[in-house]
Amino acid sequence: MSNAPPEPPEEQRAWFAATFNVSRETLVKLDSYAALLTEWQAKFNLVGPATLPHVWVRHFADSMQLLQLVEREGAAHRPTWLDIGSGAGFPGMVIGLLTGDSVTLVDSIRKKTVFLETVRDALGLERNVKVLNQRVESLGSVKFDHITARACAPLAKLFDWGEPYAAKSCTWLLLKGAAVEDELAEAKRRFVFEHELIPSLTDSRGRIVRAHSVRRRR
Ligand SMILES: C[S@@+](CC[C@H](N)C(=O)[O-])C[C@H]1O[C@@H](n2cnc3c(N)ncnc32)[C@H](O)[C@@H]1O
Protein backbone atom coordinates (compact mmCIF):
# COMPACT_ATOMS: atom_id res chain seq x y z
CA MET A 1 0.00 0.00 0.00
CA SER A 2 2.87 2.38 -0.59
CA ASN A 3 1.62 4.19 -3.72
CA ALA A 4 0.06 7.55 -2.92
CA PRO A 5 -3.24 8.38 -4.64
CA PRO A 6 -3.11 10.74 -7.63
CA GLU A 7 -4.54 14.27 -7.37
CA PRO A 8 -6.63 14.42 -10.59
CA PRO A 9 -10.06 12.90 -9.92
CA GLU A 10 -10.13 11.21 -13.35
CA GLU A 11 -7.08 9.13 -12.43
CA GLN A 12 -8.40 8.02 -9.08
CA ARG A 13 -10.65 5.19 -10.23
CA ALA A 14 -7.77 3.51 -12.09
CA TRP A 15 -5.51 4.03 -9.09
CA PHE A 16 -8.14 2.45 -6.84
CA ALA A 17 -8.51 -0.55 -9.15
CA ALA A 18 -4.75 -1.11 -9.31
CA THR A 19 -4.14 -0.57 -5.61
CA PHE A 20 -6.83 -2.87 -4.31
CA ASN A 21 -6.95 -5.34 -7.17
CA VAL A 22 -10.75 -5.57 -7.16
CA SER A 23 -12.90 -7.30 -9.75
CA ARG A 24 -14.56 -5.49 -12.64
CA GLU A 25 -17.93 -6.39 -11.17
CA THR A 26 -17.00 -4.65 -7.92
CA LEU A 27 -15.84 -1.55 -9.80
CA VAL A 28 -19.15 -1.39 -11.63
CA LYS A 29 -21.01 -1.65 -8.31
CA LEU A 30 -18.88 1.17 -6.90
CA ASP A 31 -19.73 3.23 -10.01
CA SER A 32 -23.40 2.78 -9.12
CA TYR A 33 -22.68 3.75 -5.52
CA ALA A 34 -20.87 6.92 -6.71
CA ALA A 35 -23.79 7.79 -9.02
CA LEU A 36 -26.33 7.39 -6.19
CA LEU A 37 -24.18 9.49 -3.89
CA THR A 38 -24.03 12.28 -6.48
CA GLU A 39 -27.77 12.10 -7.10
CA TRP A 40 -28.71 12.16 -3.40
CA GLN A 41 -26.09 14.75 -2.51
CA ALA A 42 -28.07 17.24 -4.59
CA LYS A 43 -30.99 16.81 -2.16
CA PHE A 44 -29.32 15.97 1.15
CA ASN A 45 -25.93 16.85 2.44
CA LEU A 46 -24.51 13.36 2.83
CA VAL A 47 -20.76 13.98 2.50
CA GLY A 48 -18.59 17.08 2.36
CA PRO A 49 -19.38 18.56 -1.09
CA ALA A 50 -15.68 19.08 -1.88
CA THR A 51 -15.04 15.34 -1.46
CA LEU A 52 -17.52 14.27 -4.13
CA PRO A 53 -15.16 14.51 -7.15
CA HIS A 54 -12.67 12.45 -5.10
CA VAL A 55 -15.06 9.68 -4.11
CA TRP A 56 -12.66 6.87 -5.15
CA VAL A 57 -9.97 8.10 -2.78
CA ARG A 58 -11.77 10.05 -0.06
CA HIS A 59 -14.53 7.51 0.47
CA PHE A 60 -13.97 4.17 -1.27
CA ALA A 61 -10.22 3.81 -0.68
CA ASP A 62 -10.48 5.40 2.76
CA SER A 63 -12.91 2.61 3.67
CA MET A 64 -11.10 -0.19 1.81
CA GLN A 65 -7.79 0.35 3.56
CA LEU A 66 -9.31 -0.99 6.79
CA LEU A 67 -9.67 -4.43 5.26
CA GLN A 68 -5.91 -4.73 5.01
CA LEU A 69 -5.62 -4.22 8.76
CA VAL A 70 -7.52 -7.29 9.90
CA GLU A 71 -6.48 -10.91 9.65
CA ARG A 72 -8.83 -12.71 7.27
CA GLU A 73 -6.96 -15.84 6.21
CA GLY A 74 -7.65 -18.83 8.43
CA ALA A 75 -10.26 -17.06 10.55
CA ALA A 76 -12.38 -19.57 12.46
CA HIS A 77 -15.60 -17.95 11.30
CA ARG A 78 -16.76 -15.10 9.11
CA PRO A 79 -16.43 -11.92 11.15
CA THR A 80 -19.31 -9.62 11.95
CA TRP A 81 -18.94 -5.84 11.75
CA LEU A 82 -20.59 -2.84 13.38
CA ASP A 83 -20.15 0.57 11.72
CA ILE A 84 -21.08 3.37 14.13
CA GLY A 85 -22.56 6.52 12.54
CA SER A 86 -22.33 5.23 8.96
CA GLY A 87 -23.67 8.39 7.33
CA ALA A 88 -23.49 7.69 3.60
CA GLY A 89 -21.93 4.27 4.26
CA PHE A 90 -18.27 4.89 4.99
CA PRO A 91 -16.58 2.69 5.83
CA GLY A 92 -19.24 0.04 6.53
CA MET A 93 -21.03 -0.27 3.19
CA VAL A 94 -17.76 -0.62 1.28
CA ILE A 95 -16.65 -3.35 3.71
CA GLY A 96 -19.95 -5.16 3.22
CA LEU A 97 -19.58 -5.00 -0.56
CA LEU A 98 -15.99 -6.18 -0.63
CA THR A 99 -16.17 -8.95 1.97
CA GLY A 100 -19.71 -10.30 1.91
CA ASP A 101 -19.41 -10.38 5.72
CA SER A 102 -22.36 -9.49 7.90
CA VAL A 103 -22.16 -5.72 8.47
CA THR A 104 -24.52 -3.63 10.60
CA LEU A 105 -24.69 0.06 9.69
CA VAL A 106 -26.18 2.32 12.36
CA ASP A 107 -27.15 5.94 11.99
CA SER A 108 -29.62 8.02 13.95
CA ILE A 109 -30.59 10.27 11.01
CA ARG A 110 -33.45 8.87 8.97
CA LYS A 111 -32.53 10.41 5.59
CA LYS A 112 -29.10 8.79 5.88
CA THR A 113 -30.49 5.34 6.59
CA VAL A 114 -32.95 5.69 3.70
CA PHE A 115 -29.94 6.42 1.48
CA LEU A 116 -28.08 3.45 2.97
CA GLU A 117 -31.03 1.13 2.27
CA THR A 118 -31.18 2.43 -1.29
CA VAL A 119 -27.48 1.74 -1.89
CA ARG A 120 -27.64 -1.65 -0.18
CA ASP A 121 -30.52 -2.76 -2.39
CA ALA A 122 -28.97 -1.32 -5.58
CA LEU A 123 -25.74 -3.23 -4.90
CA GLY A 124 -27.56 -6.47 -4.02
CA LEU A 125 -26.31 -6.56 -0.43
CA GLU A 126 -29.64 -7.30 1.26
CA ARG A 127 -28.33 -10.60 2.64
CA ASN A 128 -25.31 -9.30 4.48
CA VAL A 129 -25.81 -5.58 5.15
CA LYS A 130 -28.26 -4.53 7.85
CA VAL A 131 -29.24 -0.86 8.19
CA LEU A 132 -30.50 0.43 11.54
CA ASN A 133 -32.04 3.86 12.02
CA GLN A 134 -31.40 4.39 15.71
CA ARG A 135 -28.84 5.64 18.16
CA VAL A 136 -26.05 3.15 18.60
CA GLU A 137 -26.47 3.22 22.38
CA SER A 138 -29.71 1.21 22.08
CA LEU A 139 -28.70 -1.84 20.04
CA GLY A 140 -29.40 -4.38 22.80
CA SER A 141 -27.43 -7.55 23.46
CA VAL A 142 -25.42 -8.08 20.28
CA LYS A 143 -21.68 -8.65 19.83
CA PHE A 144 -19.40 -7.89 16.89
CA ASP A 145 -15.92 -9.03 15.86
CA HIS A 146 -14.99 -5.66 14.38
CA ILE A 147 -16.18 -2.15 15.18
CA THR A 148 -15.51 0.71 12.78
CA ALA A 149 -16.25 4.43 12.72
CA ARG A 150 -15.18 7.47 10.74
CA ALA A 151 -15.78 11.11 11.64
CA CYS A 152 -18.46 10.21 14.16
CA ALA A 153 -17.30 11.02 17.69
CA PRO A 154 -14.13 11.27 19.80
CA LEU A 155 -12.40 8.00 20.66
CA ALA A 156 -13.61 7.87 24.29
CA LYS A 157 -17.20 8.36 23.12
CA LEU A 158 -16.85 5.62 20.51
CA PHE A 159 -15.50 3.26 23.20
CA ASP A 160 -18.36 4.29 25.51
CA TRP A 161 -20.92 3.48 22.86
CA GLY A 162 -19.29 0.41 21.33
CA GLU A 163 -17.77 -1.41 24.30
CA PRO A 164 -20.99 -3.28 25.24
CA TYR A 165 -21.09 -4.72 21.71
CA ALA A 166 -17.46 -5.76 21.39
CA ALA A 167 -16.84 -9.51 21.21
CA LYS A 168 -13.93 -10.73 23.36
CA SER A 169 -11.40 -10.59 20.54
CA CYS A 170 -12.92 -7.51 18.87
CA THR A 171 -10.66 -5.39 16.66
CA TRP A 172 -11.64 -1.72 16.48
CA LEU A 173 -10.71 0.24 13.36
CA LEU A 174 -11.30 3.95 13.82
CA LEU A 175 -10.41 6.54 11.21
CA LYS A 176 -9.10 9.64 12.92
CA GLY A 177 -7.69 13.07 12.11
CA ALA A 178 -5.08 15.41 13.51
CA ALA A 179 -6.52 15.38 17.06
CA VAL A 180 -5.91 11.68 17.51
CA GLU A 181 -3.20 12.01 20.18
CA ASP A 182 -5.47 14.14 22.40
CA GLU A 183 -8.33 11.71 21.83
CA LEU A 184 -6.09 8.78 22.80
CA ALA A 185 -4.99 10.54 25.99
CA GLU A 186 -8.62 11.15 26.98
CA ALA A 187 -9.63 7.58 26.10
CA LYS A 188 -6.71 6.18 28.16
CA ARG A 189 -8.07 7.97 31.24
CA ARG A 190 -11.33 6.07 31.00
CA PHE A 191 -10.49 2.82 29.21
CA VAL A 192 -7.75 0.20 29.21
CA PHE A 193 -6.81 -0.93 25.70
CA GLU A 194 -4.00 -1.88 23.37
CA HIS A 195 -3.62 0.05 20.16
CA GLU A 196 -1.52 0.86 17.13
CA LEU A 197 -1.62 4.10 15.16
CA ILE A 198 -1.46 3.45 11.44
CA PRO A 199 -0.96 6.20 8.83
CA SER A 200 -3.88 6.63 6.46
CA LEU A 201 -3.28 5.77 2.83
CA THR A 202 -5.58 8.52 1.65
CA ASP A 203 -4.93 11.47 3.97
CA SER A 204 -1.46 12.54 5.06
CA ARG A 205 -2.81 13.83 8.39
CA GLY A 206 -5.15 10.90 8.96
CA ARG A 207 -4.45 8.03 11.34
CA ILE A 208 -6.20 4.75 11.89
CA VAL A 209 -6.51 3.60 15.48
CA ARG A 210 -6.48 -0.19 15.55
CA ALA A 211 -7.45 -1.14 19.09
CA HIS A 212 -7.94 -4.40 20.96
CA SER A 213 -9.04 -5.50 24.43
CA VAL A 214 -10.98 -2.31 25.13
CA ARG A 215 -12.48 -2.26 28.63
CA ARG A 216 -13.69 0.42 31.01
CA ARG A 217 -11.52 1.39 33.94
CA ARG A 218 -13.22 0.58 37.23
C1 LIG B 1 -19.95 13.20 10.28
S1 LIG B 1 -21.01 11.88 9.96
C2 LIG B 1 -19.86 10.66 9.35
C3 LIG B 1 -20.52 9.65 8.49
C4 LIG B 1 -19.61 8.59 7.88
N1 LIG B 1 -19.09 7.68 8.88
C5 LIG B 1 -18.50 9.19 7.06
O1 LIG B 1 -17.37 9.23 7.54
O2 LIG B 1 -18.77 9.64 5.95
C6 LIG B 1 -21.39 11.23 11.56
C7 LIG B 1 -22.64 10.39 11.58
O3 LIG B 1 -22.78 9.79 12.86
C8 LIG B 1 -24.15 9.73 13.18
N2 LIG B 1 -24.27 9.60 14.64
C9 LIG B 1 -23.77 10.45 15.57
N3 LIG B 1 -24.04 9.98 16.80
C10 LIG B 1 -24.72 8.82 16.65
C11 LIG B 1 -25.29 7.88 17.55
N4 LIG B 1 -25.19 8.03 18.86
N5 LIG B 1 -25.90 6.79 17.04
C12 LIG B 1 -26.01 6.61 15.70
N6 LIG B 1 -25.50 7.49 14.79
C13 LIG B 1 -24.87 8.57 15.26
C14 LIG B 1 -24.70 11.03 12.59
O4 LIG B 1 -26.08 10.94 12.36
C15 LIG B 1 -23.90 11.19 11.33
O5 LIG B 1 -24.55 10.66 10.21
TrEMBL record:
UniProt entry tagged with the keyword Transmembrane helix: no
HAMAP family according to UniProt: 16SrRNA_methyltr_G (MF_00074)
Domain of life the protein comes from: Bacteria
Organism encoding this protein: Sphingosinicella microcystinivorans
Protein role: Specifically methylates the N7 position of guanine in position 527 of 16S rRNA.
UniProt entry tagged with the keyword Transferase: yes
The name this protein goes by in its record: Ribosomal RNA small subunit methyltransferase G
Subcellular location: Cytoplasm
A GO cellular component annotation in the UniProt record: cytosol
Keyword list, A-Z: Cytoplasm, Methyltransferase, rRNA processing, S-adenosyl-L-methionine, Transferase
Bilayer-spanning residue ranges: none
The encoding gene: rsmG
InterPro entries recorded: rRNA_ssu_MeTfrase_G, SAM-dependent_MTases_sf
E.C. no: 2.1.1.170
